[in-house]
Write a structure and sequence with these properties.
The chain has a two-stranded antiparallel sheet with strand order 1-2. A two-stranded antiparallel sheet has the order 3-4. A hairpin with a 2-residue loop joins strand 1 and strand 2. It has helices spanning 3-18, 23-42, 55-70, 74-77, 79-86, 101-110, 115-128, 131-156, 170-180, 184-202, 204-221, 233-248, 251-280, 285-296, 305-321, 327-332, 340-347, 349-367, 383-393, 398-428, 432-449, 454-466, 469-496, 502-506; strands at 45-48, 51-54, 159-160, 166-167. By secondary structure, the chain is mainly alpha-helical. The chain has one domain (3-496): Amino acid/polyamine transporter I, CATH 1.20.1740.10.
Length: 507
């Protein structure tokens, strides 16, 4: 099917299926029971010191701590080399792959830096108070090590298709790596499990959640409860789905062209805006920093004391930077390099940008402006809280922030469409027909996401995406010795000059 016809059919299908009266309530009625079941299973809680702790969060924390020590704190030592790689110092012309280091990072970062940073941090603070921010930052640093391992494995075991395109990610390194470790009986099932989970998961974290929060922000700037669009989520979602469809038809190169331009612009604009707000409210910064550190270790803190807010911080950080999820490895697998370890260094920058920088700045904006401990009694507050925080200091910031939020959501949706697509083609095989079928369904779910309330979308997103951490981290444990051997070889050749710095050679 030609691209134009595909888009026309998409619009027709969405409009006819979503324009009926009362569709919002109907979708909520169907999705909410499903999310309840999934959440109770995936986030099964084990009580420690009278505080419930989801076992999936323990799994993620354990993996991040292990890889941090196993790779000797490379998450802190690798910044300089990561910057050199992003600058193209070690890029050899003609390397196999589809994207540059910078394009791969931009695509992957676009999947993490998004609405989750703006809305997710607000949710964390409204529930857990300032102290949750500290554990969110710690989780970001630890997650850099997990991301490092994922990206190396992604490049090591990627598949080059006959047309020159690249397919990679956890499903591929789970299958190939487990075969290599004489675990063939487990290889294909683990790959399929991950692929199926990422297909369904992408419809939550990278699709419905993003479109839902984008729609909420759109309603906020168009009049709130009096907005003409307040009950027309299907209309906003249909338009957004059509725009996404026009981009994703072109595949990863088309997505990368868009994200490599959007991500630097969005990130810089948001950071500058946040710094302006923090600077204007500089008198509140000492209190904010004190509250973050004090309440992080305060047994009487909000949401279950110290352990409770620690869990909350780690859970939101994982949702934000996706370390342990393995999704970013799908984008990084397409990089133009012959050295898998080089992309590991590039990949570890993602949690730093996403969680340590963006999330911290968002938290400081909220804490230095509108934060009130009583908001914990007002329920979950998402992107509206962050918007209010910015506008309380910069009255004109509502429109720019809303525009940035919409772009964040858009770029995240683009990246996750590719992640889900690669899971889909892993299951049923590479073909243009298979790809177009997935793209149509992905776009339909964008529209559906705009009709579901925040709690339903959040539960659905968390449940579906966190389950992929089970096979991914297990596979990384198995492959850890192989990855470390590759790392030691890379470091030795880098120090000896065998791996050439082309920037220095050209100078």
């Amino acid at each position: 099917m030609k691209p134009n016809r595909l888009i026309f059919c998409l619009f027709l299908l969405i409009s006819t299926s979503l324009s009926a009266d009362g569709i919002d309530a109907s979708i909520n009625a169907v999705i909410q029971p499903i999310t309840n079941i999934l959440s109770s299973f995936i986030f099964y809680e084990y009580t420690i010191f009278n505080t419930p702790m989801p076992l999936i969060v323990i799994w993620l924390i354990g993996g991040a701590i292990f890889f941090t020590f196993y790779f000797n704190f490379l998450n802190l030592r690798g910044f300089k080399h990561a910057f050199q790689l992003l600058r193209g110092d070690y890029t050899k012309p003609g390397n196999e792959g589809e994207l540059s280091h910078f394009q791969a990072l931009s695509t992957a970062v676009s999947g993490t830096v998004g609405i989750g940073n703006i809305a997710g941090v607000a949710i964390v603070i409204s529930i857990g108070g300032p102290g949750a921010t500290f554990w969110l930052i710690i989780a970001g640093f630890l997650g850099m090590s997990t991301k490092f391992a994922e990206c190396i494995a992604g490049v090591m075991y990627r598949k080059v298709n006959p047309d020159g395109s690249i397919s990679g990610g956890p499903m591929y390194y789970l299958e190939a790596g487990l075969h290599q470790k004489n675990l063939s009986w487990l290889a294909r099932p683990m790959g399929l499990f991950y692929a199926m989970a990422i297909v369904f998961g992408c419809l939550g974290i990278g699709n419905m959640f993003q479109s839902n929060q984008a729609f909420q922000q759109f309603i906020f700037i168009t009049g709130g409860d009096s907005s003409y669009f307040v009950d027309k989520g299907w209309l906003f979602g249909s338009i957004l789905a059509g725009i996404v469809g026009l981009v994703i038809i072109g595949g990863i190169k088309s997505i990368a062209r868009v994200t490599s331009k959007l991500v630097p612009f969005m990130t810089l604009t948001y950071v500058v805006g946040a710094l302006i707000v923090i600077f204007i409210n500089a008198d509140r910064v000492p209190w904010a920093l004190s509250a973050i550190f004090h309440e992080a270790f305060d047994p009487s803190a909000m949401s279950g004391g110290m352990l409770g807010i620690m869990i909350l911080g780690f859970q939101r950080a994982a949702f934000s930077n996706e370390a342990g999820i393995g999704s970013a490895a799908i984008a990084h697998s397409t990089v133009q390099t012959q050295e898998p370890v080089s992309e590991g260094f590039v990949g570890l920058m993602e949690p730093f940008i996403d969680t340590v920088v963006i999330c911290t700045l968002t938290a400081l904006v909220i804490l230095t402006t509108v934060y009130d401990p009583t908001m914990a009694n007002e329920g979950i507050q998402g992107i509206a809280l962050t918007s209010t925080a910015f506008s309380s200091t910069l009255s004109w910031s509502v429109i720019p922030l809303s525009f940035i939020a919409l772009l964040f959501a858009f770029s995240t949706i683009l990246s996750w469409s590719y992640y889900g697509l690669k899971g889909w083609t892993y299951i049923i095989g590479e073909s243009s027909i298979a790809e177009n079928i997935f793209k149509v369904f992905f776009c339909i779910f964008i529209a559906i996401g705009c009709t579901v309330n925040l709690s339903a979308v959040l539960d659905f997103s968390d449940a579906l995406i966190f389950i992929v951490a089970l096979p991914n981290i297990l596979g990384l444990y198995v492959l850890a010795p192989v990855i470390k051997k590759e790392l030691l070889s890379y470091q030795k050749r880098l120090q000896s000059g065998e791996i050439q710095n082309f920037r220095e050679l050209n100078d």
